[in-house]
Amino acid sequence: MYSEFDLIRHYFIRPTTGTVLGIGDDAALIAAAGESELAISTDTLVAGKHFLADTDPRSLGYKSLAVNLSDMAAMGAKPRWALLSLTLPNHLAQENTAWLSAFSEGFFELAQQHQVDLIGGDTTCGPLNICIQIIGEVPKKKALRRSGAKPGDDIWISGFLGDAALVLAHQQQRQVLETSEVTQCLPALYTPKARVELGQRLIGLAHSAIDISDGLMADLGHILEYSQVSATIQMNAIACSTVMQKYLPQPWAIRCLLAGGDDYELCFTAPPENRKEIDMLSHELSISLTRIGKIGPGKDLIVKDRQGKPIIMESKGYDHFHS
């Protein structure tokens, strides 16, 4: 059975003409007039697959745009326009105007923060499904890509990882968190911070970048694949919340940290000589930026525990066709 990315590679990658960068990164790049390229990406959220059907609609509207903004951040692009396609069950489309009102309020709250215009889309009736296409601009030949990592690069992450996966495990009754811990972790799941400004500021500092949507190991693995390099990371160097620290090193918490997904932080690589500038950027933007490992030659991804022993993971992250 194909994985999500094997399916795309097998059936949908074909030669393109006039495309700067096609399928395989966080966004495609298309040449535009002047000194910019267009960055274009799309994401689909399906009820029961990506979110619970009773999720607060305002949070859902916010998050549906945030996950797309995160793709723009990973490319270093300035998001400009969005198209929204909604498939709505009849009871939401016809009978529950409060749901649509709250959803749109959440969506436009974030859109206004980033000066993104909603320019079109589509609506139809059916099982709840949210699809957003986002278009941004990035300076010509300056976009951050997955294919730029070089041996010797530092590996960095923004923010804290794993909280969204922790609270999702609680909601799905796979684990039990304290009420205060649920309250602390919920924003990571429902209102993730798209690191748009950070992505733009990393142009010229980072060699490669990706947003962490499917889990650190899976998404860093994409950088390794496209850059043809290896990586060694130290688990104890990964920035995480006090809630996550409480449950580590239990195996289920390690899975949330390394492979849980839904983080929507940036993972990027940069040469060691840029450490000081990146630390200054962290202070300027008030965002935690943490070095967690190094890029090397070869192809392997090795995660070491506090004792320096490799951590063996059955799954490296979320796969839409195996979850």
Describe the structure.
The protein has two domains: 15-139, 60s Ribosomal Protein L30, Chain: A (2-Layer Sandwich); 146-304, Alpha-Beta Complex (Phosphoribosyl-aminoimidazole Synthetase, Chain A, domain 2). It is globular, with a radius of gyration of 19 Å. It has helices at residues 4-12, 57-75, 90-93, 97-113, 163-171, 179-190, 196-201, 216-227, 242-247, 251-259, 275-285; strands at 19-21, 28-31, 36-46, 78-88, 117-125, 129-139, 154-158, 208-212, 230-234, 265-270, 289-296, 301-304. Mean pLDDT is 90; it is low at 318-323. The longest helix has 19 residues, at 57-75. The strands form two sheets. It has a six-stranded mixed β-sheet. A six-stranded mixed β-sheet has the order 8-10-7-11-9-12, with helices on both faces. Helix 2 runs parallel beside helix 4 and helix 5 (163-171) packs across helix 6 (179-190). It is built from eleven helices and twelve strands. The protein is α+β, with helices and mostly antiparallel strands.
Head-to-tail CA distance between termini? 13 Å
Q: State which percent range the strand residues make up.
A: 25-35%
Bin the helical content. 25-40%
CATH architecture label name of the largest domain:
Alpha-Beta Complex
Globular, elongated, flat, extended or rod-shaped: what is the shape?
Answer: globular
CATH class of the largest domain: Alpha Beta
Number of helices in the DSSP assignment: 11
